[in-house]
What we know:
GO terms for molecular function: hydrolase activity. By secondary structure, the chain is of the alpha/beta class.
Amino acid sequence: MRQAEFDGKGGCIRWTETPGAQPARVYVHGLGAMSAVYHAHIAARPELAGRRSLFVDLPGHGLSDRPHHFGYTLEEHADALACALDAAEVTGAELIAHSMGGSVAVVLARRRPDLVSRLVLTEANLDAHPPLTAGSGGIASYGEDEFAAHGHARVLRNVGAVWASTVRLADPRALHRSAVALRRGSAPVMRTILEDLTIERIYLQGERSGPLDGEDTLREAGVRVVTVPGAGHNVMFDNPEAFAAAVAGRL
């Protein structure tokens, strides 16, 4: 395990990695998740073997620190991720990012273009104020103190076992601030940033999740949109073969 300070006060972002060829692949998890849990089984597949792979836990999540003075905005998450990549001496990485992690990856690509050469986004949040059915909506519906006192436990009881297994490891205040920030979005908003980028961009949408809003506009901007059959929000679990093919550039 490796770590890098991200807040100027001793808070550290942490990651595990496997050695291999460059450019590195950096896996970034979604809200309340952990990177290795969602992506290590993908990176280990034969078609992806041999590439340096980093599994980074964003602040407040997994193995990383969760300082209560930190804001957990998308920009702050992106800057923390940049600290990890700088410490790891990574440049021009391929970012494979899920849900909120995709939003963070898009913001990072704008703020630090030297760090990102390719984006593979899985059902990334592209707009502010996503539907209330999104996981962030239930969390953000609480006040922060209420969520820390009672809401976190209620969410754990009401979400599926897979997500609950990592949500319970996230700091409640960090989780709430991240959810609120995700619903607020970045400035400019993530969709606009993604459309303006010139690097290779792939967007994976699970078939069971329904049509992707604004798909035609994304395609016009050069984003390759792929609907993954038999998959919902967690494409990497529902159809790992297709997910790995997308990461490998074969889909």
